[in-house]
Specification:
With about 280 residues, this protein is an alpha+beta fold. The chain has two domains: about 120 residues, 6-pyruvoyl tetrahydropterin synthase/QueD (Tetrahydropterin Synthase, Chain A, 2-Layer Sandwich); about 150 residues, Tetrahydropterin Synthase, Chain A (2-Layer Sandwich). Helix content is about 20%, strand content about 35%. Strands 1, 2, 3, 4, 5, 6, 7, 8, 12, 13 and 14 form an eleven-stranded mixed sheet that branches. It has a three-stranded antiparallel sheet with strand order 9-10-11, with no helix packed on it. Strand 3 and strand 4 form a beta hairpin. Helix 3 crosses helix 4. The longest helix is centred in the middle third of the chain and has 19 residues. The protein is globular.
Length: about 280
């Protein structure tokens, strides 16, 4: 299972009048609301993504226009303008627009948030332990079906691995998880990430260079700068799945049984991906 999320903001005022005059939230006040829209599903093997982040942005921005710079008490259909109702309102408005919508998360402040989803996913067995955050700085570009491509650019990717294990294995699992995540992120760091099975065109390794032949152009990169990934497109979803596969293989060699492995990869401040692999120890 893979999830991606996109972050948005809107500014609005509200008051929770039923709390009584003595409560500060009963007065009209405002917030910079942060909204995370989470979409889940299977990765399209051809395109390498669940859906285009641009499609999420287009549909979500249209819904948030109903709330931005408004007094939320006056928004029809919202009800009492709590974070809970704001999250539900956005979710129900987006559900017909975004296939595989999983959740909407609304942050009213840096310390308070609400998660609205139609169903709560079952917790995996055991305890969860997580690795320290790893950062790898990589370049890439996406390919499109018509043979065109993005311009070459890069990101500082942030990655965290989590694993569900029996309580007695938590310490050694964390050590193994940290080691394996460091290894794979080290392979990707300060490299150009290229697909070995490109969505469009063909790719060849010729001595000290890698040649990508597309319908409209041929581009050449030094081999020493590149990492070929077994994917069709270097999307965040495909990169997360690749990292999960490497970490899963590495942790397994340590002889640690586990119930599930999660890789969370942040491409930018507003775009991230969560990939979960469930196993049977």
């Amino acid at each position: 299972m893979t999830e991606i999320s996109k972050t948005f903001y809107f500014e609005a005022a509200h008051s929770l009048q039923d709390l009584g005059q003595g409560h500060k939230c009963s007065r009209i006040h405002g917030h910079l609301f942060q909204v995370e829209v989470v979409v889940g599903g299977e990765i399209d093997e051809k395109l390498g993504w669940i859906m285009d982040f641009g499609d999420i942005s287009r549909e979500t921005n249209e819904v948030l226009e109903r709330l931005d710079h408004r007094l939320l008490n006056e928004v029809e259909g919202l009800g009492v303008p709590t974070s809970e109702n704001v999250a539900r309102y956005i979710f129900l408005a987006l559900k017909p627009r975004l296939r595989n919508l999983v959740a909407v998360v609304v942050h009213e402040s840096p310390h308070s948030r609400c998660v609205y989803r139609e169903s709560i996913e079952a917790q995996f067995k055991g305890v969860i332990v997580s690795s320290p955050r790893q950062v790898f700085s990589s370049a890439h570009f996406l390919l499109f079906e018509d043979g065109s491509r993005e311009t070459l650019h890069g990101h500082d990717y942030e990655c965290v691995a989590s694993i569900w294990v029996e309580a007695g294995n938590g310490f050694i699992a964390r050590q193994a998880l940290e080691k394996e995540l460091q290894n794979v992120c080290g392979v990707l760091d300060h490299r150009l990430l290229l697909p070995s099975k490109p969505l469009a065109g063909r790719i060849e390794t010729l001595e000290d260079r890698i040649v990508l032949s597309l319908p409209q152009e041929t581009v050449v990169f030094p081999s020493k700068d590149c990492v070929l990934l077994p994917v069709g497109n270097t999307t965040t979803e495909a990169i997360s799945r690749f990292i999960a596969s490497c970490v899963q293989t590495g942790v397994t060699t340590h002889g640690i049984p586990f119930y599930a492995l999660e890789i969370s990869t942040k491409e930018s401040s507003s775009c991230s991906c969560r990939h979960v692999v469930e196993t049977k120890p």
